[in-house]
């Protein structure tokens, strides 16, 4: 049975956005697995995604304080539908990224990362797929805010899609 994935990073709530956009929360609820590559900034965002997602895998980023670092690892590894995923917040400069990531994650099929807020999708010579979903709340120099969706299906990652995020419709934080 295929597994639907939602890739997020750099949500930066409440510093860059008061709350996650409704579109992001809907995507969290629809995905089988949510992968968040760090820079949550507040623990309430982690709580919200834990509550709304079927399965959440996350790491901490450079803007995440002691509370988030106590709850999340720096690096996460997980096999999802036969695909070996690794996730880390920061991979360094774009120049040389593929070689660094191949060396650091020799057993992974897919590496999810964040930090730059710049969407990224490449495959290294060895076949490691590198994915950065951008940011759903802080587009920086990008034309729009983004997230990424994909499907893990019997050892194959397919339908990787960069999705623009409409920040005009922000969510209110759940009170539950």
UniProtKB/TrEMBL annotation:
E.C. no: 3.1.4.-
Annotated ranges, domain Calcineurin-like phosphoesterase: 5-148
Broad enzyme group: hydrolase
A Pfam family: Metallophos_2
Keywords for this protein: Metal-binding
Cofactor: a divalent metal cation
Superkingdom in the source lineage: Bacteria
UniProt keyword Hydrolase, yes or no: no
InterPro entries noted in UniProt: Calcineurin-like_PHP_lpxH (IPR024654), Metallo-depent_PP-like (IPR029052), Phosphodiesterase_MJ0936/Vps29 (IPR000979)
Gene Ontology molecular function terms on file: hydrolase activity; metal ion binding
Key word Metal-binding present: yes
Family: Belongs to the metallophosphoesterase superfamily. YfcE family.
PANTHER family with a match to the protein in the record: VACUOLAR SORTING PROTEIN VPS29 (PTHR11124)
Protein name from the UniProt record: Phosphoesterase
Source organism per UniProt: Mycetocola manganoxydans
Lineage: Bacteria, Bacillati, Actinomycetota, Actinomycetes, Micrococcales
């Amino acid at each position: 049975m295929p597994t639907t994935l939602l890739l997020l990073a750099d949500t930066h709530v409440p510093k860059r956005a008061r709350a996650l956009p409704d579109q992001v929360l809907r995507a969290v609820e629809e995905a089988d697995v949510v992968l968040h590559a760090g820079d949550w900034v507040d623990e309430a965002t982690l709580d919200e995604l834990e509550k709304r997602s079927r399965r959440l895998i996350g790491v901490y980023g450079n803007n995440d304080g002691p509370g988030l670092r106590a709850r999340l690892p720096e690096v996460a590894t997980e096999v999802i539908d036969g695909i070996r995923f690794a996730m880390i917040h920061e991979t360094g400069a774009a120049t040389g990224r593929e070689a660094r990531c191949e060396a650091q994650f020799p057993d992974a099929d897919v590496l999810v990362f964040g930090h730059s807020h710049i969407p990224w999708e490449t495959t290294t010579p060895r076949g490691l797929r590198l994915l950065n979903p951008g940011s759903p709340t802080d587009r920086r120099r990008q034309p729009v805010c983004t997230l990424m969706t994909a499907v893990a299906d019997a050892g194959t990652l397919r339908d990787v899609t960069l999705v623009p995020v409409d920040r005009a419709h922000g969510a209110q934080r759940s009170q539950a």
